[in-house]
Design brief:
By secondary structure, this protein is α/β, with parallel strands linked by helices. It has 9 helices and 8 strands. It has an 8-stranded mixed β-sheet with strand order 1-2-4-3-5-6-7-8, sandwiched between helices. Strand 1 and strand 2 form a beta hairpin. Helix 3 packs across helix 4 and helix 5 crosses helix 7.
Length: about 325
C-alpha cells in the first residue's frame, strides 16, 4: 500500500514548482543536469546521489519528505543518464568512460553548486545503489567535509546470482577485450538492450505498485530519461570501483550508514556486510559493524511499500540528527 493519495500528490506538485533546475560542466566537458530546493540557506542540506538509470525527476516525493524534515535538497543526474549528457551514439546504452568520473562530478557538484548556495555547512549525502558506490569513491578521492553518508542498497558489489564472482569477472573481462578489439562502440552485455518498460509482476525493485507505475509513466512521458541495459565497459568499470572501495577504506573519514534490503537481488548484500565489518574495524566511530536490515524490502528501499518506507525514512532521520553539526 501507498499513501500517495491525491492530497499528497498535489502537495508534491506544489512543492516541486519551487525547484530550480540548472546544469554544470563535469569531467570531459560533459553537461550535468541538477535541481535544488533551498527553503532557507541556514538549514542543513541533503545531496541525493541517485541509482543507475535514474533521474532527479523520480525523486520528487522523497525530496518533498526530506524537505519536510527541515533540509535543503540538491540532486544531480549522473553523466550518461537522466537529463544529463549521454556519451554514446546509442543513448540507451549504460556507459561511463571511468567510474571515478561519476565521483569527480559529485565532488564538483558539492563544491561549485551546493556549498555556494547555503550558509549552514552541514551537508549529508543520501545515496541509492550505484549512487552509493559513487559516494564512497568521492569520499575516498576528495577532501570535502561531509557530515554523513547514508547509503541505501549500496552497490558495493553487483549481485551476480548463482554465477561465481570469479566466473562473472572472467566473462566481463573477456567480453570487454573482444569488444575493444572489434569496435570502438561499446557492446551491450548479453541479455541487455534498449529501454523497455517493465511490468510490476515479479519485479525485483519494489513492492509498491503505485510508485512503480508512477515511475513507468514518468519514463514513458519523458522519453529523454530512458536508459537501457549496461555495456561490457560499464561492468568492467563497476568491478574496478568495487576493488578500489575496499583497497582505499582508510581514506574514508565520514560517518557511513548502510541500509540493506533483505530481499535485494540487484546488489550483493554480503559485500555490504564485509564493508561494514572492515570499516568498523578500522574506525569504529564511523560505521556500525553491520548494516541496518529492512525485512521484506526489495532493492529500492526509498520507494518501497509504506510500512517499509516509513521505517526507512525514520532511520534516515535518526542518522541525520545523530550526525548533524549545525551551522
Amino acid at each position: 500500500m501507498s499513501n500517495l493519495n491525491k492530497k499528497k500528490l498535489d502537495a508534491i506538485a506544489s512543492f516541486w514548482r519551487q525547484a530550480k533546475t540548472a546544469s554544470f560542466i563535469g569531467i570531459g566537458n560533459i553537461r550535468i543536469a541538477y535541481v535544488n530546493i533551498v527553503k532557507d540557506p541556514q538549514l542543513p542540506t541533503i545531496v541525493i546521489s541517485t541509482g543507475r538509470s535514474e533521474s532527479y525527476l523520480k525523486y520528487q516525493e522523497l525530496a518533498y519528505d526530506l524537505s519536510a524534515m527541515g533540509y535543503n535538497i540538491f540532486i544531480h543526474d549522473h553523466r550518461g543518464q537522466g537529463l544529463s549528457q549521454r556519451m554514446l551514439s546509442n543513448t540507451h546504452k549504460g556507459y561511463v568512460e571511468y567510474f571515478d568520473h561519476y565521483a569527480d562530478d559529485l565532488a564538483t557538484f558539492i563544491t561549485n553548486e551546493v556549498q555556494p548556495n547555503i550558509t549552514n555547512k552541514s551537508i549529508s549525502i543520501l545515496a541509492h545503489s550505484m549512487g552509493s558506490a559513487i559516494t564512497l569513491r568521492m569520499l575516498q578521492r576528495h577532501s570535502i567535509s561531509i557530515t554523513s553518508a547514508i547509503l541505501a542498497s549500496a552497490m558495493i558489489a553487483i549481485n551476480f546470482g548463482k554465477t561465481p564472482y570469479w566466473l562473472a569477472k572472467t566473462i566481463i573481462h573477456v567480453g570487454h577485450c573482444m569488444n575493444r578489439m572489434a569496435t570502438v562502440e561499446p557492446w551491450y552485455f548479453p541479455g541487455h538492450k534498449n529501454y523497455q518498460p517493465a511490468l510490476f509482476t515479479n519485479n525485483p525493485l519494489m513492492g509498491c505498485s503505485t510508485r512503480f507505475e508512477r515511475f513507468i509513466n514518468l519514463y514513458q512521458q519523458e522519453s529523454t530519461l530512458q536508459l537501457g541495459g549496461v555495456t561490457f565497459h560499464w561492468l568492467a568499470q563497476a568491478l574496478q570501483a568495487n576493488q578500489h572501495i575496499f583497497r582505499e577504506l582508510t581514506n574514508i573519514k565520514t560517518p557511513v550508514f548502510i541500509l540493506q534490503a533483505a530481499n535485494d537481488v540487484i546488489v550483493d548484500n554480503q559485500a555490504q556486510n564485509i564493508f561494514c565489518q572492515q570499516l568498523h574495524q578500522l574506525y569504529p566511530q564511523l560505521c556500525a559493524h553491520k548494516p541496518r536490515v529492512f525485512n521484506d524490502a526489495r532493492h529500492e528501499l526509498l520507494f518501497e511499500q509504506e510500512y517499509i518506507r516509513e521505517d526507512v525514512l525514520a532511520y534516515i532521520h535518526q542518522c541525520l540528527t545523530t550526525t548533524d553539526t549545525g551551522s
